[in-house]
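Bumping with the actual sequence this time:
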Amino acid sequence: MKKGEESIVDLPPPADGRPDLLVIAGEHSGDEHAGRMIQDLKLEQPGVKVAALGGRHLESAGAQLLMDLTHSSVVGVFEVLKSWSFFRQLFKQVMEWIRVHRPRAICLVDYPGLNLRLAQKLYREGLSKKGGGDIRLLYYISPQVWAWKARRRFDMARWLDSLGVIFPFEVEAFADTNLEVQFLGHPFLTEGYVNAMHHDPGGPVFLLPGSRRTATARIFPILLKAFEAHRLEHPEARAVSLYPSGGMRDLLESMIPQGCPIELRPSLEGGSAGSVLTSSGTMSLACALAGIPGAIAYRANPLTYILGRSLVEIPFLGIANLLLRKSMYPEYIQQAASVPSLAAELDECRGLERVERAGLDAKRLHDLLAGPTGLSLGRWIAKGISDSG
């Protein structure tokens, strides 16, 4: 069944009366970061009541999961249009739940296509604090206003009460607004987080096409062919691909050619790798922080890509490259993401110079992304709830 044809069952009521917090995280990475946020929050406020639209990480952290939203994440203008009826129905359901159950605060996590629309609607209906109501709106992991649609920052300042950002340069991006913005450090470097990725020169090749089905279907076959081309020179090479959910595992498995030496492993297990071919998403930064040499491959719907290029004004797609202001991971976009080019990258990643350079870059990234002392994610979200009165 296509997403655009899905029906959404009514969201259940909160289990324990009016919730202190509603969390909305629509993607696997957002769900993982939000789960850690709730774990941290419960250390600050053990009795806090949390409801969520997200995934298994939020549920494991103790939130009441109203709906698993991570199964419905898509990327790209045209992909969203195909699923428009689904998202329209979802939007109506979420708004009705908020109207009826009135959480004290709402934390929107990434996923701006849905979450910024919700923030606007809550403001216009007078439900949010800045709209005249009593629900405080918090946003964790900002939309990339520094990359495209920069004027969204003024709308965000109008609708939101507080914004927690994960990159240091994002504070400056909102300097000309009155929005309260705090750099909280990157989730990969917060207390208690252990990077599941490690560099081992003799380890397998990571093939990481991302967590979205449409993007994975475009990228993974190219990564596989590049790996097979690499094996012509290095027949002992092995590969590992990580999956965030059972559905994604099935998709990956369906694309692996018979006899290809590749292991499928849950994302949480991570592991060691000698090199990586990755999409430009969250996992690419985890690999960069682990000092694993590699390259980025990205292919989008051609029309989505043309539209995106006209709107985005940044020199790199990979966040590690943006932070370092150089190409730690060479980027191969659209047709440039070819089998010969990516196979050549895997060959080069075996060299000592590339390995040493990746290690030095990883140390710089750690220094850049470490958060301020004395302000944990749990304290930030706890303050947001308490300020709601």
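The tokens above came from a reply further down the thread. The chain has two domains: 12-190+371-386, 197-369.
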